[in-house]
Specification:
binds thymidine-5'-diphosphate, Rossmann fold, 3 domains, binds magnesium ion, Ribosomal Protein S5, domain 2, about 25% helix, about 450 residues
Length: about 450
């Protein structure tokens, strides 16, 4: 018993309406609404309810049964490995390396567990070419090239893997629906069927999704609430570095990042990120800061270029640092060091364009700007940590002990920090020279080479 039902769905935000509008009532985008016809079935007619409510004691804990993705960096972002029965959405721009990381991971997992890789975008031969590039030695990984959802579900049921991959959700098609693959309703319907299967059979499922230009997951955002974990794979076409960033995680924190490098034979983990975001040369306009990323601390360079402006409005641009943060730092320098920065253009970029969100990078940014302006290098072999307050004071930073430890481990000789407790200072007595400062004026007077 089924009848056709027509709904109108915004392809940008996923809002459903019963009639057509030229402009979406929710996200205000124009011409984004598309009519979609789905077959209406009374879902509840033939459900035999044989489930019963149970207590926590009767539920087996999945905490200990996580399995590794084969990459420590990937496991870290997942919160310590893959949880059986969980659904992970891996998003990223086309060409960033999603299929590559997932195939490498599948190869490693399949050494111990049953894994099924479903490719909807590439033929079996294409996947094989990639596989040969990746130097994997598993022989048990199962590949299935298909775009039809029912066939995929049937195959997953028959293989009954521990881990299944769908590459990608935009290529999969539920033939009961008339909309085209990749549309919001297709993406949503396919994902929810796959998710039900994952939960029913306790299969860990990884769904790949391409992102649109504005950064929303296509089938825009509509999958995020459905799945357990959302991870973004980021990077740019110029550099070979790639970051895995957790956006949502029902089983762990979203602060962690995983760092990789794309090589000729696939992705390699970067275990010592401090080395790739810094350069040892001591030149005007470049400082090093130690930033907090999840449970890790690592060194990143901050470069500034300050030039006399030829514009009525001086130019300010940033890469890796929030532009509003730069405006605030410039205002603090202008007011508390007494330098008229409105006459200068100012460009700030982090090493490798790494996105720093830790406010303790302020001091490094400020010293880079002053160093470039004066054309004097900063203190030799130094690192700067501290958040700048609006009244010019250098404020305490999170995890200062760990940051100093990382600087000492890297062999940095001087570290400039806000005022410290005595016992913390004594800890590092012979390891690194600690210079305490309380405000930006003091930093300016003492942190550039004489
Ligand atoms: P791919 O995993 O196909 O991206 P996605 O699935 O996100 O669309 O990665 C494609 C890019 O990665 C392509 O530009 C080639 C490059 N690449 C390497 O540099 N080394 C490799 O070993 C592989 C397999 C791909
Ligand atoms: Mg791909």
């Amino acid at each position: 018993m089924s009848s056709k039902l027509s709904t109108f769905i915004c392809q940008n935000c996923g809002t459903e309406t019963s009639q057509y509008f030229g402009k979406c009532l929710n996200c205000n985008s124009w011409n984004s609404i598309v009519e979609e016809i789905k077959s209406k079935r009374s879902k509840y007619q033939d459900i035999k309810n044989n489930k019963k409510a149970i207590t926590f004691n009767e539920i087996s804990s999945t905490k200990t049964s996580r399995f590794t993705s084969g990459f420590r960096e990937f496991d870290r972002v997942l919160g310590g490995g893959i949880v059986p029965g969980s659904v992970v959405l891996l998003g990223g721009e086309p060409g960033i390396g999603k299929s590559t990381i997932v195939l490498q991971s599948a190869g490693k997992i399949s050494l111990n567990e049953k894994v099924l890789y479903v490719t909807g975008e590439e033929s079996l031969e294409q996947v094989k070419i990639r596989w040969e590039r990746l130097n994997q030695n598993s022989i048990d990984l199962k590949i299935f090239a298909e775009t039809n959802l029912s066939q995929i579900i049937e195959e997953i049921r028959s293989v009954n893997p521990c881990f299944a991959i769908i590459d990608s959700i935009q290529a999969i098609h539920n033939h009961e629906m008339e909309s085209s693959p990749g549309s919001v309703s297709q993406v949503r319907a396919c994902s929810s069927e796959l998710q039900n299967l994952a939960k029913e059979k306790n299969i860990a499922l990884l769904i790949i999704g391409h992102v649109t230009k504005d950064g929303a997951l296509a089938g825009p955002k509509t999958l995020e609430h459905l799945v357990d974990v959302v991870i973004n794979f980021e990077g740019d076409n110029i550099s070979s570095h790639r970051l895995l960033r957790g956006i949502k995680n029902r089983f762990g924190s979203t602060f962690e990042i995983g760092i990789f490098e794309m090589l000729e034979d696939g992705l390699r983990e970067i275990k010592n990120p401090s080395l790739i975001f810094t350069d040892k040369e001591n030149i005007p306009g470049v400082t090093t800061t130690i930033t907090n990323e999840g449970t890790r601390q690592f060194a990143v360079d901050i470069q500034a270029l300050v030039n006399k402006t030829f514009y009525s409005n001086p130019r300010r641009t940033t890469t890796g640092i929030n532009i509003n943060r730069l405006h605030q730092i410039l205002a603090v320098i202008e007011k508390h060091v007494g330098i008229k920065l409105s006459e200068f253009d100012c460009y700030v970029a982090t090493g490798g364009g790494f996105e720093i969100n830790d406010p303790s990078s302020d001091l490094g940014v400020a010293i880079s700007i002053l160093s470039s302006l004066k054309n004097i290098p900063p203190l030799e072999s130094s690192s700067f940590i501290g958040e700048l307050g609006l009244s010019g004071q250098v404020r305490k930073s999170n995890n200062l002990r760990k940051k100093i430890e990382e600087a000492a481990r890297l062999g940095i000789k001087n570290i400039v920090v806000p005022k410290l407790e005595e016992d913390l200072k004594n800890n590092f007595k012979n390891l690194i020279n600690i210079k305490e400062i309380s405000n930006i004026k003091e930093a300016f007077d003492s942190c550039l080479l004489d």
